[in-house]
Design brief:
single chain, alpha/beta, 17 helices, 37% helix, 2-enoyl-CoA Hydratase, Chain A, domain 1, 16 strands, eight-stranded mixed sheet
Length: 449
């Protein structure tokens, strides 16, 4: 054992261990299930060790990292095992927003342990891992459908469809390296600023390539990740949950060595529209950044919310409100850059001045309105000739879509040359470095779910 390590709950039986250890240059509370196959069921004694590690993380203000390999609560122990699982759930909930939490799933995470992953900030899964609340036997007994454990909850499925894992890695060691990389952007606890990352990339570097990525056609596609890479520090862009809800990008990066969170519409996927998964993905990320003092940079290019009866019936209103709520309560520095389109409710949702952002910038060709000229013509000029409709669209675009109209009314702080975006971001973040908001005292808000 390293001289920097302190073992916890060493006398408690079970294939599980807890200790305070160094992960890279950061001290963390580390909980690890033994790499046994088949995975051991979760006993009350094991949950005691787990709870101890979580409580240590909270009390000592340390990041909490869990390596999980659990077949669920021990059936033979009955209610005692469930009681222990509930205590772990409570301890993890108390960690939320106070210390960053990470899980590395290496093997199964079934039933109760699977639900605990939903409380964790970032989950990494190995290629052999799987996770589900109800396994193949229960699915077959209740629904009559035969499904394999890999089809139901493999690491790939959870990354692409479930939105659970931020990455799939080869093994535990690779998972630890991924967590170590994530820790480069986040503080040890909520009362500490994020660590400064050394960089040689000058903040006044021009970035004309960012604007050159935008197609001439307002409906043309491009990769917004390349824009984000151009305006942030070199090699600092680190995307999270890239295979889930691809119409919105969430990522860590640095600007002048300052870690930031980036939320961006992705025109390459569903034209950058917002749907339920995208709203959930962005809302959770905004909430994390706000909890752990990371400024939020929002890159906007969206025609609005994705339409459809299926989405509305599945709760587009409730889930879209999650993103509204996350931005509306965020107190960290917030800078918005409108790259191209910002229409309708999505204009409000994507951190507009109306939602309380600190600085709103726009590129010269940005379009800000209730809807695009073609959509407006389809509604207001239904009986017009093609020539009349074309005239209307040109006039609409000239009078209402350009960012200068929004700037005159105070909805945009500055219309900037795309080449100056990096410098403008650096100046805005420097100005906001001492931002502090005093919120009204209350127990908590009623977050849309």
């Amino acid at each position: 054992m390293s001289v920097d390590e302190v073992n916890l709950a060493t006398g408690v039986p079970g294939p599980i261990s807890a200790r305070v250890r160094m992960l890279g240059d950061r001290r963390v509370s580390w909980l690890e299930f033994d790499a046994v196959d088949p995975a051991a069921p979760l006993t009350q004694a094991m949950t005691h060790t787990w709870e101890t590690a979580a409580r240590t993380a909270l009390e000592e203000r340390l990041p909490f990292v869990m390596v999980i390999n659990s077949a669920g609560a021990d059936i033979r122990e009955g209610i005692a095992a469930l009681d222990g699982w509930g205590r772990v759930a409570r301890a993890l909930t108390r960690c939320s927003g106070n210390v960053p939490t990470f899980a590395i799933v290496d093997g199964p995470a079934v039933s109760g342990p699977a639900l605990l992953l939903g409380l964790v900030d970032f989950t990494v899964m190995t290629t052999t891992a799987y996770a589900f609340v109800n396994g193949p036997v229960m699915v077959r007994q209740i629904t009559g459908i035969d499904v394999s454990k890999d089809e139901l909850g493999s690491a790939s499925s959870m990354e692409k469809h479930g939105g659970l894992s931020v990455a799939v890695v080869a093994d535990r060691a690779s998972g630890a390296e991924m967590v170590e990389h994530l820790l480069e952007y986040v503080p040890n606890h909520a009362d500490e600023p994020p660590p400064h990352v050394p960089t040689t990339d000058p903040i006044d570097r021009a970035c004309p390539e960012a604007g050159e990525l935008i197609p001439e056609s307002s409906t043309g596609s491009y990769d917004v990740r390349q824009v984000a890479e151009a305006i942030t520090d070199e090699d600092s862009f680190f995307e999270l949950r890239g295979r889930w809800a691809g119409n919105v990008v969430t990522a860590f990066a640095t600007v002048a060595g300052q870690p930031v969170g980036i939320v961006a519409n992705q025109p390459m996927n569903l034209a950058g529209t917002l749907d339920i998964p995208a709203s959930q993905k962005a809302a959770r990320f905004v909430a994390f950044c706000d909890a752990f003092n990371l400024p939020i940079i929002t890159l906007v290019d969206t025609p609005g919310f994705y339409p459809g009866k299926d989405l509305e019936w599945r709760g587009m209103i409730r889930h879209g409100a999650q993103l509204v709520y996350a931005y509306g309560r965020a107190t960290v520095p917030r800078v918005c850059v409108i790259l191209r389109k910002s229409y309708g409710g999505a204009f409000i949702v994507m951190d507009s001045k109306t939602m309380g952002n600190d600085v709103c910038l726009a590129w010269p060709w940005a379009e800000l309105a209730v809807m695009g000229a073609g959509q407006a013509a389809a509604i207001l000029q239904r009986r017009a000739t093609d020539e009349e409709r074309a005239t209307f669209e040109a006039d609409y675009a000239d009078r209402l879509l350009n960012p200068y109209v929004a700037a005159e009314r105070g909805y945009v702080d500055a219309v900037i040359d795309p080449a100056d975006t990096r410098r403008e971001l650096g100046a805005a973040l420097a100005m906001l470095a001492n931002k502090r908001e005093v919120l009204p005292r209350r127990k908590h808000g009623n977050t849309p779910l």
